[in-house]
Amino acid sequence: MAYEAIKSSNSSLSRQKKRPLEDAIDRVLQVRSREREDSEDSEAALEEDESEKPQDERFLLNRQMVKHWNVEPASQPTSEPPSKKKRRVETDDEDTKMLDTPQNGTAPSDTKSTDKTTKEQQKKTPKATRYTVEENVALPPVGGLSDVYRSLLGQTGFRLRRPELYRGNSGLVPGILLSGPPGVGKKSLIRTLAAELSAPIVSLKACFQDPERMEKSLTEAVDAALSISPSIVFIEDLHLYMGKPGGSTHNEHHQKAIFLFERQMERIAQHDISNGGVLAMATTSRLTDIDPTVLRYGLFERTVPLRVPDRDARVDILKVLTRDLELAENVDFTELAKLMHGFVGADIATVIRLARQASINRIVSRQNNDYDRFLQLELDGTSVRKLADGALDLCTMLASYPESSPDDTICAEDFKSVIGGFVPSLRKEGFTVVPSITWDQVGALRAVRDQLNMSIIGPIKDPELYRAFGMQRPAGALLWGPPGCGKTLVAQAVANEAQASFILINGPELLNKYVGESERAVRELFQRARSSTPCILFFDEIDSIVPRRENSSTDASARVVNALLTELDGAQDRSGIYVIGTTNRPDMIDSAMLRPGRLSVRLFVDLPTADERVDILNTIYKTCHSEATAAELARLPGVALDPRCHDFSGADLGGLHTKAAESALRRWMTKEKTVKEIDEVDWETALESTQRSVSNPETYRKLNVKLGKAN
C-alpha cells in the first residue's frame, strides 16, 4: 500500500493525520498518471514519425566498412560483447538486410504495412473535446418570462448581429449573466433565444472540469464558436467555476479559470466579425458567490435577475406546458396557480407530469372495475366468466373501449391531489408556503391590524397608490410584548392577507463562528427574498439575532448586526422586501435596528382586555368547532369574563379551551354525558386547573411607556 510505504519512509509522517496524507498521495498519483499518458502520447507520435520517414540508402559502403571495425578475429576465444557492441551488431544486421534490398527501392510492402499497423494500434486514442455544440432546435416560448424574453431578445440580437456597434468599446462585447433560483427557467430562456436568433450554443461547462487541459479546451471551444458565428458560448452554474475567494464554492483553480476565460474574450474581440459576433452567456443560482472581477466590464457586465413567478406568471406557465394535453373543463388555471405559491417553472412541469400520471392511474382503475363488473354479469342464467371459459381477457376488453372519452382527460382533482403532497424546490431553500392563518383566526388586536395594513399589506396590494404619495421605501415592523399574545400569529396573517412570499428566520440559521459565514448567510437571505418579491422576512425572537453590540458575547452577533443594517439601508435594491420581527425584550435589540427606515414601526402587543378575551375565545372556539351551536357560543362570554381569566394571554385562553375539551372527552368516554360538546362543568374544570403564564405584565407596560418617551 502506497500510504504505508511512504509513512514508513519518513518518521515525521507518522504524526500526520491519515486522511490528508492519503488525499495528497492520490493527487500525486493522478498527476503522475497524467504525465505518463502525455509521455506515451509523445513517444507514440515520435515512433509514427520515425516509421513514416523514408530510409536513407546513401552511404551504404561506408556503413559496410564501419561495421567490421568492432568484429573480433575468429582465432580469439569468443566472449559476450558489451551491451553497446551488442546493440551495434544488431543495428548492423538491420543494415545488412537493407543491402539485400534491390536499389530500385521496392522493399517488401507487407513488412512495412504490418509495422505501421502495429504502431498505430499501440498509439493512444486522442482525447475527446470537452466542449459541446447545441444546434438550433425550434422551442416553444418560455412561460412566465415574456417581459424578460423581449428585453433579452433585443440585447442578444444586437450583440450577435451588429457586433460592430461595440467596436468603440475596445471591441469587447459584454456578456450576459442570468441569475435566479434553481428551476426558474434560466437555461430554457437562453436556448429559446438562441433558437430565435439561429445561433448555435457552445457549452464550456466541461472545459473547466479538467484543470490540466483547461487552456487547450477553452481555446478549442472558442475556435469552434468563431467558426460558426454568430454563436453563443455558454457557462452553466458560473459560481462553480469562478467563485470568489473565501466563498463556499471557491477552489485553487478558479483564478486560473477567470484568467483564461478573460483571454478568450479578448480573442473574440479581435476576431473578424463580418459573419456575426460571439456572445458569452452564463447562469447562476448563487450570485453572491461569484468573483466580482467576473462581473466587470468586458466579461459578464450585464446581470439579469429572474424572479420566482407570481400568480399571473404561474398561469402563463401552466398554459404553455399544457398546450398539447387534453384537460377537463373544470381545470381553472387561476385557481391552480393560487395553490402553487412559491412554485418555479421546473416544479410546475413536474406537477403537470404527475397529474397526467394520476389521470392515467384513474383511467386504468376505472377500466379494471368495469372489467370485473362485466365478468359478473349473467346471460341466460349463466355467468359471463363461465361462458368465456378463460378466453376473455382484459386486453380484449380494453380493445373494445373508444380511443378517447371525456373521462380520459386530466381533471382538476388530478392536479389538486398532486399539489397537496408536492414539496416545491424553494421549500428546501428556506421558503415556506403562504401561511393559512387569516385575520378571522386572530382575535382582537384591532389597532395592530390597522397599522400593519397601512405599513405592509397596503404597499404590497396597491404599490402605485403608495408611490403616488411618495411612500416608496418598504417599511419594517417590530411586534413586541409579553409571550403568548399572538405576535407570530399576526405576522402569518399579514403574509396571508398580502399573498406574499414568507421566509421564517431563526437565530441559529444566521449565526456562524467562522469569519464571513454569518455575513454571507445574511446576503444569501436577502438575495432569496429579492428573487421572490413581494416577500416578508419574519425574524422570530429577533433579539437573539441582533443584540446590542456593546453587550454581545460573540463577534458573530456583531457581524450579523452590521450585515443586516447594510441590507436594510438598501445597499442593494430592497424594493418589495418587508421585514417583521418579534421579541419580548425590545430593550435588548441594538438601537441602530430601530431607527427610521429599518424597524421603525414598533407595535406593542399587550395582554388582552376583558372584551378582547371574549373575542379571542370566540375565535378559538369557532376555529376548532366549525359546527358550534348557539348554546355553546353563549357560554363563552361568561368564561372569558371570569375573574380567574384576568391577565390571560391568547395562548393561555387556547390552553384553557384544550383542558375543557379534554374534560368533555373524558366524561363522554366514561358515559357521564351523551352530548359531544363542552358544557359548564367542563369549563369550570378547566378554570380550576389553569393559571396565567405571564407573571409580571406591569414590567412590559412600564417598558412601553419608557420606549414611547424615548421616541
TrEMBL record:
Presence of the UniProt keyword Coiled coil in the record: no
Catalytic activity: ATP + H2O = ADP + phosphate + H(+)
Residues annotated as domain AAA+ ATPase: 172-310, 473-609
GO biological process: peroxisome organization; ribosome biogenesis
Bias-annotated ranges (Basic and acidic residues): 112-123
SUPFAM superfamilies, A to Z: P-loop containing nucleoside triphosphate hydrolases
The organism's place on the tree of life at top rank: Eukaryota
Residue numbers spanned by region Disordered: 1-129
GO MF terms, alphabetically ordered: ATP binding; ATP hydrolysis activity; preribosome binding; RNA binding
Name of the protein described by the UniProt record: Peroxisomal ATPase PEX1
